[in-house]
Amino acid sequence: MNDFFQSEVFGIFLTLGVYFLAQKLYKRFSYFFLNPILITIGTIILILISLDIDYAVYNKGGKLISLFLSPAVVALAIPLNRQFKLIRKNSKAILFSMFSGSLAGILSVMLIAYLLGGSELTIISLAPKSVTTPIAMSISEQTGGLPSLTAVFVMIAGILGSIAGLPFLRLIGIKKPESIGLAVGTASHGLGTASLAAEGEQYTAYSGLALSLCGIITAGLTPLVLEWIMKWLR
Amino acid sequence: MEKHFFKNNKRLRKAFWERITTRMIKSLSILFGFVGLGEIIRLGLQLPIPGSIIGLLLLTLCLQLGILKEKDVKPSGKVLLKEMAFFFIPPGVGLMLYFDLIKSEWQAILGAIVLSSFCIMATVGFIHQKMDKSHE
């Protein structure tokens, strides 16, 4: 039995099995707080803790599952390729606002975390918090942060933007659907984009565009900004 | 849909599934190929950007230039994108290693994420609304 826990099969079986049951539960009751991913993560953590199994042991199999995040990032080329006609329409405004937004995001999150007493590890892991999870996690890994911690921060940013994004932007006088879409997509990636679905195609198309563009821009900017800002903060 | 079409034709149904399987394998190998290519370029040029991002840029370029068609990558690409959340579960479970860190720094974490998100939205919103001419 112990051999089973030590093998890769254990992690894969546990993840698939719990996810399958969580999805069934969600389909049966479909309350939004029964989000199958969150339920699965919580259940697996409880199982591991109660059986006293190390995360590293579980992750032998887990690694084989998260391996597929890389081709999923590459597959983002499919929506990006379709969104290209939007960029052509007004490329200067889009690219400049995306670049400024990404830079403002990295700088502000690091500075505020520093001022509020966050540790270096937290600050590094926070830097890519506004981009879509697979991209954020690979940035975090590349720059010496903790990818799973980054995944949590990305989730928080996504939930915040999907609840407060639209009201906040209307409050400060942003009215154009394109600008709202881009702003929400830059700050809150896919979750923000999904929250605009009820507003219309114009919002979500631009939000999706911001998701892919900012992911790429942030991947390029984060290592540079980190190197510069960490020298300055120390 | 498939049942409907090939209700009485086992041979056609089999051919249909074989074709889908072939396309899935082809598209998955293209996607992994771009992951590998991105990794090679990252290591070769010592770039600080993740290899998968380089792969994403190269694939977008190939699609834009028409070197590859969307249907070459779509079969498995669509599945990967749709079920992306599933692949986050193992790293999400990794959270159990950092409960103490989150508990001791939650004010800094929450404060930074909230303020920074508003900062981003204001920056992008104002700049884009000011520069965008498509409504005029």
Fold blueprint:
The complex is a heterodimer of chains A (234) and B (136).
Chain A: H1 2-6, H2 8-29, H3 36-51, H4 55-66, H5 69-75, H6 77-89, H7 91-115, H8 120-126, H9 133-142, H10 147-171, H11 177-195, H12 201-233
Helix pairs in contact in A: 2-3, 2-4, 6-12, 7-8, 7-11, 7-12, 9-10, 9-12, 10-11, 11-12
Chain B: H1 2-5, H2 10-45, H3 51-65, H4 70-82, H5 84-87, H6 89-93, H7 99-131
Describe what this molecule looks like in 3D:
The complex is a heterodimer of chains A (234) and B (136). Chain A has helices spanning 2-6, 8-29, 36-51, 55-66, 69-75, 77-89, 91-115, 120-126, 133-142, 147-171, 177-195, 201-233. With 234 residues, chain A is mainly α. Chain A has two domains: 2-70, no CATH class; 89-233, no CATH class. In chain A, helix 7 crosses helix 11. Chain B has two domains: 1-87, no CATH class; 92-136. In chain B, helix 2 (10-45) crosses helix 3 (51-65) and helix 2 crosses helix 4. The model of chain B has no long low-confidence stretch (mean pLDDT 87). At the A-B interface, helix 2, helix 3, helix 4, helix 5 and helix 6 of A face helix 2, helix 3, helix 4, helix 5 and helix 6 of B.
- Domain tally of chain B: 2
Q: H/E element string of chain B?
A: HHHHHHH
Tell me how many strands of chain A there are: 0
Distance N terminus to C terminus of chain B? 46 Å
| Count of helix runs of chain A | 12
Q: Which spans of chain A have pLDDT < 50 for at least 5 consecutive residues?
A: none
